[in-house]
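Hi P.,

Sorry for the delay on this. The queue was packed all week, but I finally got your sequence through. Input first:
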Amino acid sequence: MSDQDFTTHITVRGYETDSQGHLNQAVYLQYAEHARWEYLRAAGIRQADLVAAGIGPVVLETTVKYLRELRAGDAVAVSCSFTWRDGKTFQVVQRLVREDGVLAAEITGVGGILDLTERRLVADPREPLRALAADQGLLGL
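Then the structure:
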């Protein structure tokens, strides 16, 4: 199935900026994490549902390309798209776009679903998400 895309909106808060007045580099990762949880929530999967099922999403690799600065008060759209592939992992692509349409950052990563009892990645991350999702199509499952 083709990849799906989800977007949530965030306004940069002053306390998230650094001494140069732009968004602190670590906060980009927080925005990306927030968007991933909102994506799952929109598909009907709550964090409590994952814990109850004995699984949890994990980040295995992250790359951030900082392209343009974000400053306090900037409205930013944070997208999230999962690319499902064979095996235990999936790719995550996220873009942070200012309201003027300028791409501020691109975050790519590799994720998986961890079995919280075995402490190992599940064989196919799509399967447990299919079982929990109210809207499988949103996640491209």
